[in-house]
């Protein structure tokens, strides 16, 4: 049973009121048996009023559009086209935006994807680091490894801080995602209470970055997780994080 405290959960500016805990007949629970955590100990987003989309149900056309818009953002960020061309493209982009603006999805819409090893993972569909429908996300696709998760991402100038380097805030964002995901798949989903980042070496753009999160230990709802970013085999940043799992018991 999800704690009453979490029957009111704020996701950004939206107050999500979950009126009922998960029901025992919910088919969603049957999909969660891949995880080591017993199904009853994992929260069902729908009990919080949050819809769940299956990642493989996202239309190929939307995936392609997301990738195209990501390329557009990169092209815009770096363009030196002449003003007449810019004005023409601006008008076209605005017209296209009007065509696809069907209204926002419900804030907090979740996506469930199955990792390569068969583990199910839940995330928000527009998550800024890994959301599959978010062109502003790099995106980082993490896979299960022993004790946590790992994935590779290559960042362009859209993520630039110092010349040729990834912005420090984005380094923290990648690490936050990795530790959050590691905690989620190894235990159950939670929120980051603390994230300490050590920037050991510059993190380069246009270079495959290996991003890792591994659970170190768990104490009740507290999950201690470490994270690393490596470029060309060298650690560029590391993190120590404390995740707090969504409570499943009263109190
Ligand atoms: C349906 C489910 C959906 C889930 C979606 C997941 C999506 C994931 C996406 C991933 C995206 C990436 C991730 C993101 O971007 S997460 C987004 C960034 N993080 C946040 O916004 C979190 C904001 N903070 C909070 O909401 C609360 O403070 C939390 C939830 C963290 C704890 O408040 P809560 O009232 O629940 O906890 P409690 O007071 O009962 O304490 C419990 C225990 O924890 C210990 N403690 C607490 N805080 C700290 C601290 N700062 N240092 C040390 N210890 C701390 C406390 O002493 C106690 O210990 P003990 O007495 O047991 O020893």
Automatic annotation (TrEMBL):
InterPro entries, sorted: HotDog_dom_sf, THEM4/THEM5_acyl-CoA_thioest, Thioestr_dom
Location of the protein in the cell: Cell projection, Ruffle membrane; Cytoplasm; Membrane
UniProt keywords, alphabetically: Apoptosis, Cell membrane, Cell projection, Cytoplasm, Fatty acid metabolism, Hydrolase, Lipid metabolism, Membrane, Transit peptide
Top enzyme class: hydrolase
Gene Ontology BP annotations: fatty acid metabolic process
Catalytic activity entry: dodecanoyl-CoA + H2O = dodecanoate + CoA + H(+); (9Z)-octadecenoyl-CoA + H2O = (9Z)-octadecenoate + CoA + H(+); (5Z,8Z,11Z,14Z)-eicosatetraenoyl-CoA + H2O = (5Z,8Z,11Z,14Z)-eicosatetraenoate + CoA + H(+); tetradecanoyl-CoA + H2O = tetradecanoate + CoA + H(+)
Segments forming domain Thioesterase: 164-234
Main location: membrane
Protein's membrane topology: Peripheral membrane protein
EC number, as in UniProt: 3.1.2.2
Any Pfam family the entry gives: 4HBT
Protein family per UniProt: Belongs to the THEM4/THEM5 thioesterase family.
PANTHER family documented for this protein: ACYL-COENZYME A THIOESTERASE THEM4 (PTHR12418)
Name of the protein: Acyl-coenzyme A thioesterase THEM4
Provenance organism: Nocardiopsis kunsanensis
């Amino acid at each position: 049973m999800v704690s009453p405290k979490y029957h009111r959960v704020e996701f950004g500016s939206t107050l999500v009121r979950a009126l009922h805990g998960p029901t025992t007949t919910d088919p969603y629970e049957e999909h969660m048996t891949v995880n080591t955590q017993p199904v009853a100990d994992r929260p069902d987003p729908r009990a919080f009023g949050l819809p769940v989309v299956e990642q493989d149900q996202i239309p190929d056309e939307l995936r392609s559009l997301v990738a195209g818009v990501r390329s557009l953002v990169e092209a815009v960020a770096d363009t030196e086209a002449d003003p007449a061309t810019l004005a023409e493209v601006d008008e076209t982009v605005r017209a296209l935006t009007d065509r696809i603006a069907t209204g926002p999805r419900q804030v907090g819409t979740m996506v469930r994807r199955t990792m390569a090893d068969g583990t199910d993972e839940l995330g928000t569909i527009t998550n800024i680091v890994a959301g599959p429908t978010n062109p502003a996300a790099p995106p980082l696709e993490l896979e299960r490894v022993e004790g946590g998760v790992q994935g590779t991402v290559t960042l362009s100038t859209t993520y630039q801080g110092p010349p040729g380097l990834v912005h420090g805030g984005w380094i923290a964002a990648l690490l936050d995602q990795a530790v959050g995901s590691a905690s989620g798949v190894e235990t159950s989903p939670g929120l980051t209470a603390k994230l300490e980042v050590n920037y050991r070496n510059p993190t380069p753009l246009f270079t495959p970055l290996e991003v890792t999160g591994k659970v170190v230990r768990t104490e009740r709802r507290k999950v201690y997780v470490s994270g690393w970013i490596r470029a060309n085999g060298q650690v560029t940043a590391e993190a120590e994080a404390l995740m707090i799992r969504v409570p499943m018991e009263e109190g």
